[in-house]
Amino acid sequence: MTTTQSISAVQPNPYRRRAMLEWIAVHSFAVGLALIFVLPFVFVVLTALMSDQQSLTRDLWPNPFAWHNLVDVWHTSGFTTWWRNTLLYAVCGTALTLLSSLPVAYALAYFRFRGRNIAMMVVIATMMLPPQVSIIPLYLVWAQDFHLTGTLWPLIIPLAFGDAFSIFLLRQFMLTVPPAYLEAAKIDGCGDFRTMLRVVIPMIRPAIAAVGLFQFFYCWNDYFGPQIYASENPGAWTLSYGLQSFKSAHHTDWNLTMAATVLVMAPVIVLFFFAQKAFIEGVTLTGVKG
After folding, report:
1. Is this prediction's pTM over 0.90?
2. Which of 5, 51, 157, 241 lies at 20 to 30 Å from 118 by C-alpha?
3. Is the pLDDT of residue 131 over 50?
């Protein structure tokens, strides 16, 4: 081997060095972006575990850890009621959304009827309509005709009639199911309902999980709806609305306010941690066929 070949063998490949620098730059950007999202949550948790005096200082680390803050917040008057109401709203709302949106999405995906495209455009148009536009007539209906204001039923009952975003997402995923499976089910004597129940739904479980999580997160974090319909009755408040009242009552106790925030966020974080695989798969595999 000549001297020139030995030197070239020792010197790094310029393409390899460029690839390494790109890898470092991309991962550094990703780590920095992750810190931007994680650090506020870390700050909330650490503040929630501080004492009353320490939470008003510049200290960033609890000394000692005041775990009793979480217990004190949990036993605050009304907090368990807010938790129960939020769970009722989120669970019932998610179940009703799935039960009502699946048949509509199946019909828009597989039925051939006049005006199907117009019906789909109407569904998409309702997604663009802000809820503030229709809140006044809806409130008058629930207040004067059904007398259900002061409860969460004006928020739960409409979900039994479908949700535009859920219908759109489920319909797009159903279009990715090979038609051969549906034709085989029809040949075996299955009707549309059994085909949807036995063939389509098992094949779109990731999409159902994604829609369910989207709806659960929306109901759990909903502030506008409970403020409009349940503000007059503290017994019907949810966590998102009750947290504002808790903050007003403990405006100087930042540790208790942060502890309440942690208790509100914890179920959503735990649920996403266990369901993130199905959620991400449902989002990434959702088709965009027309």
Report:
1. no
2. 157
3. yes
